[in-house]
Amino acid sequence: MKKFSRKSRIGWFMLIATTGITLELLLNWKLLVPLLIGCFLIYYGLMKARRDAGKIYFIIGALLTIIPIMSTAFFKILMIGAVIYGLIQYSKAKKQAQKLVIKTVPPGTKAKVNRKKPYIKNRLTGNHRVVNEVFEWDDINIQCGFGNTIIDLGMTMLPPGDSIVLIRGFIGNIHLIVPFDASITVNHSAISGKLKIFNHEEELLNSNVIYYTDENNEVSTRRIKIITNVAFGDVEVRRT
């Protein structure tokens, strides 16, 4: 019989706990009603985020959402399991010697740190669409909680070399449109969902996979490295 790896066991435990929490919330109206009200207040607060009242609505909604979830029996089991797992890992780490490597720099060396706001930003809820838009390229690193994400890179002037696209999501689909002349590497991790890369499609269950195109990455002028993490949802990568 095939043995599950440590990551696989953790993934299944998280999936079972999440499913149990969801079912317990749906079957207990005393927990479901405050949760729904909290979600509505969070959404309303995000819509009015620029106002002080919107921030208050968001905080109240977050509390009404967190309290019912923390009140479920499955959440308490999850926390107990996490504490036990943490103690086991801590005890193992104390038994193993750690090697520390210290790197030094010449005295007086100073680095100038510049700050820049990216064009594509994080979004907690709602659909995220960047289609038929021209923007200055920066490596993409965003988090999307709930909702679909569509990003079209067909009209973007990618610089020579490696370009990074990192997208993390919880529930929702991710759709990426890439230029036809760029070599692609996809590193995808998901609990459940489909992965479609050009003409290849497969179902994933608590898996992480890496795909790359047939082009020689050393010869290709433009290379896109796509890293996607989604708990429940589909990911599709296609050419323009």
From TrEMBL:
Stretches that traverse the bilayer: 12-44, 56-88
Keyword set includes Phosphoprotein: no
Domain Cell wall-active antibiotics response LiaF-like C-terminal: 126-237
InterPro entries: Cell_wall_LiaF (IPR016975), DUF7649 (IPR056066), LiaF-like_C (IPR024425), LiaF_C (IPR047793)
A Pfam family of this chain: DUF7649
Domain DUF7649: 21-88
Transmembrane found in the keyword field: yes
Domain of life the protein comes from: Bacteria
Keywords per UniProt: Membrane, Transmembrane, Transmembrane helix
Name this protein carries in UniProt: Cell wall-active antibiotics response LiaF-like C-terminal domain-containing protein
Species this chain originates from: Lederbergia ruris
